[in-house]
Amino acid sequence: MSPAPSPGSSTTLDPASLAQLRELEAVRPGMLAKTAELFLGQAELRLATMDRKLAVGDAEAVADAAHALKGSSHTIGARELGALAAKIELEARAGGDTRELIVALHDALAAIRPAIQALGAEPPE
To answer: Which Pfam families does the entry link to (predicted)?
Structure first.
C-alpha cells in the first residue's frame, strides 16, 4: 500500500506538459505509456539513491540524483516533484540537511503516481 500523500501534495500534472506529451503520442502511439513507465522506474531509483547516499553523507550524490529527477519531473509535468527535487539539489550542494525534503519528495511521488500511471491508460486520440 502506498503512503498517503502529505497535505498540499499535488495529484495533478501540468496541463502544458501534458499537451506536449499528447502531441508526441499522436506521432508515436504508445509513447505516453512508455514515458510514464520509464519515469516512475527512474524516479524510484533516484529516490532510493538519495536515501542511500544521505545515509552515508554523500551530499554530492544526493544533489546529482535530485538534479536528474528535477529534469524528468518537469518534462512529464510533475511540477511539485520537480520543485522539491530542485530544493534538495540546492540544499545538498550547500551542505544542508535534506532529510525532511527527501521525505516530502517520497510523499509527492506517492501523490502524483496515480496521475502518471493514468498516462499509460489513456486511449489514443
So the answer is: Hpt
Q: How confident is the model at residue 52 (pLDDT cuts 50, 70, 90)?
A: very high
Whole-prediction pTM value? Answer: 0.86
C-alpha cell at 81: 516533484
Q: Does residue 91 have a pLDDT over 80?
A: yes
> According to the 3-state scheme, what is the secondary structure of the chain?
CCCCCCCCCCCCCCHHHHHHHHHHHHHCCCHHHHHHHHHHHHHHHHHHHHHHHHHCCCHHHHHHHHHHHHHHHHHHCCHHHHHHHHHHHHHHHCCCCCHHHHHHHHHHHHHHHHHHHHHCCCCCC
